[in-house]
Amino acid sequence: MRRIGYGAVVAVTGLMAAATSASDKRKAFRAGLAAGRIQRMPGAFNPLVAKLVQELGFEGVYVSGAVISAELALPDIGLTTLSEVTERGRTIARVTDLPTLIDADTGFGEPMSAARTITLLEDAGLAGCHIEDQVNPKRCGHLDGKAVVPSEEMVRRIRAAVSARRDPDFVICARTDARGIEGLDAAIDRVRAYADAGADLIFTEALADASEFAKFRAAVDVPLLANMTEFGKSDLLSAEALEGLGYNAVIYPVTTLRLAMFAVEAGLREIAATGTQSGLLDTMQHRARLYELLGYQRYNEFDSGIFNFTVSE
């Protein structure tokens, strides 16, 4: 077995896993929410996308429940399990130095289940999660036909989640879906109660336009998260516009999956029609770029026996 000197150990730091501890990522997330600059958190549907999100200079990574469902070829109606969501969050958080926020649906059950959810997500290295006030099983937040639990029941979910938290920097975000069911004023009343119950961050789903985002900001004195998902009920506002409205974070939950699936479908159709992928090469990520993102060259610094070849252009 090859002996590895101290210099090689230093070189591998941050290579196979993030160099930043879960505790430090949580502190960074809290600091970012208080910094007066919006925290941009694109959705990552796998760890490789999370590495790219970090490389391109974003402030955080988001893991969408809708995307986890879609990857399993399931609709976003509460069919995924806590173990499936936790494990996907673990694999993504492990590779990035950025804080990772994950969608925990309704907490996967009653308040005691929400408490267990927090303990598992903390152990998986996540920086925070959001829990919503929909009836379980839930629905995608931008679909009609949703139902919400009484505010008092959601308050119990949040209190249970907060009580289970061991790292005080783990961010517990309360999401309300009441805007499309009970109206904006009712949604505001709800999240005020959720903040009083200990929620650190508030996420109101399916606000319509800038005026509603502004009204919500004026009414609620806690950090706010905006959801900029495509083809939904909300106008797509820029990060700059949301920052100007006083929002603290923005997620782009399904964007990368939609981009990828559009390209995959177009490519498969091309191969089905022509029998070859040769006409698609200019639309593909080159092998050399993939290896760069994976850090192949740094593995050579760790052990030259791993990386002992060149990539031809």
From TrEMBL:
Domain of life: Bacteria
GO molecular function: metal ion binding; methylisocitrate lyase activity
Record's keyword annotation contains Oxidoreductase: no
Name the record gives this protein: Methylisocitrate lyase
Cofactor: Mg(2+)
Species this chain originates from: Nocardia mexicana
Pfam families listed in its UniProt record: PEP_mutase
GO biological process: propionate catabolic process, 2-methylcitrate cycle
Gene3D superfamilies documented for this protein: Phosphoenolpyruvate-binding domains (3.20.20.60)
InterPro entries associated with the record: ICL/PEPM (IPR039556), Isocitrate_lyase_ph_CS (IPR018523), PrpB (IPR012695), Pyrv/PenolPyrv_kinase-like_dom (IPR015813), Pyrv_kinase-like_dom_sf (IPR040442)
Keywords: Lyase, Magnesium, Metal-binding
Swiss-Prot/TrEMBL catalytic activity: 3-hydroxybutane-1,2,3-tricarboxylate = pyruvate + succinate; (2S,3R)-3-hydroxybutane-1,2,3-tricarboxylate = pyruvate + succinate
CDD domains on file: ICL_PEPM (cd00377)
Role according to the record: Catalyzes the thermodynamically favored C-C bond cleavage of (2R,3S)-2-methylisocitrate to yield pyruvate and succinate. Involved in the methylcitric acid cycle. Catalyzes the cleavage of 2-methylisocitrate to yield pyruvate and succinate.
NCBIfam families reported in the protein's UniProt record: prpB
Keyword match Metal-binding: yes
Family membership noted in the UniProt record: Belongs to the isocitrate lyase/PEP mutase superfamily. Methylisocitrate lyase family.
EC number(s) on file: 4.1.3.30
Pathway: Organic acid metabolism; propanoate degradation
Enzyme class, spelled out: lyase
